[in-house]
Specification:
3 strands; three-stranded antiparallel sheet; Arc Repressor Mutant, subunit A; transcription regulation; alpha+beta
Amino acid sequence: MDPTRLKILHVLMDGEKCVKKISELVGLNQSACSHQLRTLKHHGLVKSKREGKFIRYSICDEHISEIIEIGSIHIGEKKR
């Protein structure tokens, strides 16, 4: 998986956020962040919810969070 998309998923593990907040936390401009979120949404990893003129993104379900956590632990063990 693309490292930027993985960073976005890590940020969303803390709860739903708008593109502006995600882009600040990940260090991307909003356009690039929106493009990555669109890809994640297309693959069923994130969902969106419109609130007025803002769109808030979150991880689709708890299984995605579990997979990310397990993968992060596995990567950490390999680095030892």
